[in-house]
Amino acid sequence: MEPSLPTTASPVAIVTAASRGIGAAVARELAARGYRLVLMSRSEGSLRLADELGGVGIQGSITDAADIDALVALTIETYGRIDAVVNNSGRYSDILQHHLEKLPMLTGSRLTLEPNDVDDLLGIPDAAWHAGLDLIMLNCVRMARAVTPHMLAQGGGSIVNISGMESVQPRLIYPLGPIRLALHGFTELYADRYGRAGIRMNCVLPGVMENASSSDLSITGAIPLRRYGGLGELAKTAAFLLSADSGYITGQMILVDGGLNRGL
C-alpha cells in the first residue's frame, strides 16, 4: 500500500544533517521534485538552505531525542503530515574526532588491498564505539519512534537511512564502519513490522563521493567506474527510494559506490 498523499499539496520530507554534503544534495533534489522540506543540522546551514528552498529549518542534533521530537513537531505544525524522511548523519568521523585522534588517510591501495596499517584497532576507546552506535544507528531508531505514529495515521510513508559502503567490506580506514550493520538489521526489522501499514524503510550505502576529504588520484583507479560518485547521483537514488517508483522495495541496502564493493 502506497502512502496516502494529499490531493491539494506536495509531499512533505524531513532531511537531517542537511547543511552540506549528502544532506544538502538530497534536500535540493527533493525540492526540485516538488517536496515541501523540513531540514535540520547542528549548524545554521540547514536554516539558510531551508529558506532558499522554500521550506523550514531547525538547528539541532540527531543524537538528541528532544531535538528530533522538536523537528517532527515542527513538521506537523507546519505541514500537517510527514511523507518521507532521510536519516543522514553527516561525516561521523568529524563528529567523533574527540574519541579517535588519528584515522588513516584514504588511498587507492587501502580500498583494494587489506591495509597493512599500524593503527591500533583495539585501542579505540569504548566511548567511540558507544558514540558511533548513538550517531549511526540509534538516531534512526529515535526518528522512527517519532515519525511512525504520523505515518500510520496518514496511511503510509517512506524512510531512507544513509549508511555507508564500509558495512559491506570493513576496512581499517573506517574503523567504526561495522556499526552500520546494526542499522541494517534495524532497517530489515522495521520493514517487516511496518510494511503491512504501507511504510517502507531502506538504506543507501554511499561509496567514495566527490566530497571525500582525500585528494589521492589513485582512488579512482580502484573504482570500476573510474571516478568519484556525484552527490547528485546519490540524492537521486534516495529520492527514488522515497518515491512511488520504488513502491515494492523495502528492507533493502542499496550500494551507490561505482562497483567498488560486492555483495551484502
Structural class: alpha/beta
In CATH terms, the superfamily is NAD(P)-binding Rossmann-like Domain
Strand count, sense and barrel status of the largest sheet are: 7 strands, parallel
User: Largest beta sheet: what is the strand line-up?
Assistant: 3-2-1-4-5-6-7
**Which consecutive residue ranges, at least 5 long each, have pLDDT under 50?**
1-7
What is the CATH architecture descriptor?
A: 3-Layer(aba) Sandwich
The shape is globular
Number of strands: 7
Strand proportion, as a percent range, falls in 5-15%
End-to-end span in angstroms? 27 Å
Task: Quickly count the helices.
Answer: 8
Radius of gyration: 18 Å
- Please estimate the helix content: 25-40%
Oligomeric assembly? single chain
SSE series: EHEHEHEHHHEHEHE
Instruction: State the CATH class.
Output: Alpha Beta
Molecular structure report:
- The chain has one domain (12-256): NAD(P)-binding Rossmann-like Domain (Rossmann fold, 3-Layer(aba) Sandwich), CATH 3.40.50.
- The protein is 38% helix and 14% strand.
- The chain is built from 8 helices and 7 strands; from the N terminus they run E-H-E-H-E-H-E-H-H-H-E-H-E-H-E.
- The chain has helices at 21-32, 45-52, 65-79, 92-95, 108-112, 126-154, 180-194, 231-242; strands spanning 12-16, 36-41, 56-59, 84-87, 157-162, 199-206, 253-256.
- The chain has a 7-stranded parallel beta sheet with strand order 3-2-1-4-5-6-7, sandwiched between helices.
- Helix 1 packs across helix 8 (231-242) and helix 6 (126-154) runs parallel beside helix 7.
- It comes from Candidatus Entotheonella gemina.
- It holds the Pfam family adh_short.
- Belongs to the short-chain dehydrogenases/reductases (SDR) family.
- Keywords: Oxidoreductase.
